[in-house]
Write a structure and sequence with these properties.
By secondary structure, the chain is mainly beta. Helices cover 11% and strands 33% of the residues.
Length: 760
């Protein structure tokens, strides 16, 4: 799989191919759509008296309106699909010019995300409408911009609605904040260009095949609603440890609907592709010389071309890679794929690049497999949250989250409960984190309506629900970290979910499908995925021979307040029961917002602190980290139960087990320490042969280096601590970081009782 972006900013960005419009925009907040200033979108409108607002941001975090926190209660009168007339509406205006270098190119306006719905105008001309607070919208504006070189500034006006009918599908348990909260970009593309690609896998042993689906688009924009591509690749369950050759296939699609000639478009254009090695995941800098690390070239195979949908032609580029390094959360190996489109003169017309993680997700009886091995999900649920910025993301915060996760043995994240910032996926690919990507659908509040069915049971809601699932898959389909798609959260269960599941399985059978609604065991989920199920119940399901799916808790160990107390018992069950493959703690971080008190002090605010109603008070504070990412004490327990090296004391033997599925203990340094009655008695390096994945090593008691200390000590309580540290630095931590530490109480010695002699 691969991370991709139309902007292509990770590697080899097209020269002058994108321009950020983020910055300070003119802003006015109207109390309702009817109070919006007349003709505010016209070029001649005077906005000099308006205030400014940073884009991206949530306007509530800058003194406009106030934040609202509810768990499941809708924050407006419940009357679907209608929203109240008193609906705060943000009016935005900004100015831009098109770079001279873009002359003759198509101009696209790209919004990464806007909450909750919006109209956009260029120079007074409406260019589009979109809703879905967590996914992008893109409009072609070439014909509406002033001629390049005219010196005239273009005016972009945006009208954002706080509530829309789509808000009924966005009833998640988090802060409700509005506005343009992700970046806005201008993109320049040629008239015939690479528009999208879908990388799917066919891995076999000893040879491996990987198929890349690329799209080349003409002047007419292709969206998920107009491009109906059929997945034709069949995947079989195989072991892939020993694959020697990777066969690469890049499927290219060209839209030449505006071309005069309907002959083969490649009579005018040439396609090339190359794969580069990005360096080992274990390197602390993660960099390598891409130019000198070409590992595969891909060439056109005309015999593989096929007709797709009207106006498109399919082409395949093929190549081979020897001994590919596979991607997993333990070893996140990545390659860089570069695809280039050239014209008849040999000049580069367009290029795209993406990070490629070669890996395979497959099924076995009661197991989810990655590269042929069952994995254990040591996961957390993660909302997008910043204590000062609200729902606006900054890369430093994302990196901090991933560093903390990796340092505390967390290997998986569920995006709760919506698609997240596109950079988050790129970083998860890079750091090595398994992901459930979740559609922006939650209708929890319908449970309490008393008279209305969930939207999933109403065919009138089907287009909106399916669009959210389809758009998520289309945006994120090329990321190695995503091993599972989710149809949403707490939205009941019905035909609309079944239809969405059918579309996803047809589009991308290479991943699992997840949905908890309907009892977590419906036909629309490939995982039994309950939330907060008791330990004996998950064990009972795992031992049911008729249930062939693995069980992974989508939410468990709710972390509000003094909590997470029984997480060791959960993991005793998970570690000892076939069919249990882990779970996702609720949740990663307290959703507190930094607020100034009347005396100038600052505190973490929660629902109701702004006089907001309805509210659910401090129920938003249920993470294993404070809002500023300072770990709660429970994090130490999470790190312990999630640690990959397990130590147990058996009779006359100390057993050290490596629970990794791919890594040996080669990169670890083990040490021991003995304490008696609180005093350190001795310590040292613990040497033994490296332990292979899913294997153990037994240390006989009499030959252990601490044996003499134990036998000679007069202490009442003696404890042995075994520690495993990283011997090399990685992307997320310096060498010497403790990944596992276990303390066991040594068996009590038989006390010496002197024999008292009595005289005869």
């Amino acid at each position: 799989m691969a991370s991709s972006s139309l902007v292509g900013h990770l590697v080899f960005p097209p020269e002058n191919g994108h321009k950020s419009l983020s910055g300070y925009w003119r802003f006015f907040l109207a109390s309702s759509p009817s109070k919006v200033p007349e003709n505010f979108h016209d070029s001649a409108f005077h906005d000099s008296e308006w205030k400014t607002l940073p884009v991206p941001s949530n306007w509530q975090m800058h003194g406009f309106d106030h934040p609202i926190y509810t768990n499941f209660t809708y924050p407006f009168p419940f009357d679907p699909p209608f929203v109240p007339k008193e609906n705060p509406t943000g009016c935005y205006r900004t100015y831009f010019q098109i770079p001279e270098e873009w002359k003759g190119r198509r101009i696209l306006l790209h919004f990464q995300a806007v909450d909750s719905a919006f109209f956009a105008w260029i120079n007074g001309v409406p260019v589009g409408y979109s809703q879905d607070s967590r996914l992008p919208a893109e409009f072609e504006i070439t014909d509406y911009c002033h001629p390049i070189g005219s010196g005239n500034k273009n005016v972009l006006a945006v009208q954002v609605f706080k509530w829309s009918d789509g808000s009924y599908l966005e009833d998640q348990d988090h802060w409700l904040l509005s506005g343009i909260h992700r970046d806005v970009l201008l993109l320049a593309k040629p008239s015939v260009c690479i528009s999208s690609h879908f990388i799917s896998e066919y891995i076999d042993a000893p040879s491996t095949r990987l198929r890349f689906r690329y799209g080349i688009e003409g002047p007419k924009r292709v969206t998920c609603s107009t491009l109906h591509d059929k997945q034709i690749i069949k995947i079989t369950d195989v072991q892939v440890d020993n694959c020697k050759i990777l066969e690469l296939y890049v499927e290219v699609k060209i839209d030449y609907s505006r071309e005069t000639s309907k002959e083969n478009i490649l009579a005018k254009y040439t396609l090339e592709a190359a794969l580069y090695d990005t360096g080992g995941w274990y390197k602390s800098d993660g960099y390598s010389d891409l130019i000198s690390s070409n590992v595969a070239n891909l060439k056109l195979n005309p015999s593989s071309s096929r007709r797709a949908v009207p106006g498109f032609r399919g082409y395949f580029l093929e190549g081979k890679l020897g001994v590919p390094r596979l991607w997993s959360a333990e070893e996140p190996n990545l390659y860089t794929l570069v695809v280039i489109l050239k014209d008849e003169s040999g000049s580069i017309v367009d290029c795209e690049s993406c990070l490629v993680g070669i890996r395979k997700v497959s099924k076995a009886y009661k197991q989810l497999l990655v590269n042929g091995h069952p994995i254990i999900i040591r996961g957390v649920n993660r909302h997008e949250h910043h204590p000062r910025l609200g729902k606006t993301n900054i890369e430093a915060c994302m990196v901090k989250d991933l560093v903390l996760m990796k340092q505390n043995n967390i290997n998986a994240v569920r995006n709760s409960h919506y698609p997240q910032h596109p950079r988050w996926y790129e970083l998860c690919d890079l750091f090595g984190v398994y992901m459930i990507d979740e559609a922006n659908i939650e209708t929890h509040g319908f449970d309490y309506s008393g008279h209305l069915k969930h939207p999933t049971l109403d065919p009138g809601w089907a287009p909106a629900m399916m669009d959210r699932v389809i758009s998520m898959v289309e945006r994120d389909k090329n990321h190695a970290c995503i091993i599972c798609w989710s149809l949403g959260n707490e939205s009941g269960y019905g035909p609309n979910h079944s239809a969405s599941a059918g579309w996803v399985r047809e589009k991308d059978p290479s991943r699992f499908l997840h949905y908890e609604g309907g009892g977590s065991r419906t036909s629309s989920t490939d995982i039994v995925c309950p939330m907060y199920m008791r330990i004996w119940d998950i064990v009972k399901i795992a031992k049911d021979p008729n249930e062939i799916r693995p069980l992974i808790l989508c939410e468990y160990s709710h972390a509000m307040g003094n909590s997470n107390g029984n997480i060791p018992e959960y993991w005793e069950a998970i570690d000892s029961t076939f069919g249990l493959q882990g779970g996702f703690i609720w949740e990663w971080v307290d959703q507190g917002l930094l607020k100034d008190g009347p005396d100038g002090s600052k505190h973490w605010a929660y629902g109701g602190d702004w006089g907001d109603f309805p509210d659910d008070l401090n129920f938003c504070l249920h993470g294993i980290n404070w809002p500023d990412r300072t770990p709660h004490p429970a994090m130490h327990e999470v790190k312990y139960v999630y640690q990959p090296v397990k130590v147990s004391f058996l009779e006359q033997t100390l057993q050290i087990k490596n629970t990794h599925f791919y890594e040996t203990t080669e990169g670890l340094e083990f040490s021991w320490a003995v304490h008696g009655d609180g005093w350190k008695l001795g310590s040292g390096i613990l040497s033994f042969p490296l332990i292979k994945p899913q294997s153990s090593y037994d240390i006989e008691w009499q030959s252990a280096p601490w044996s003499t200390l134990w036998s000679s000590s007069s202490a009442e309580d003696i404890f042995l601590t075994i520690t495993a540290k990283l011997s090399q630095s990685t992307r997320w931590v310096e060498a010497g970081h403790v990944i596992s530490s276990t303390q066991v109480q040594l068996p009590a010695k038989r006390k010496f009782v002197p024999h008292v002699l009595t005289p005869f």
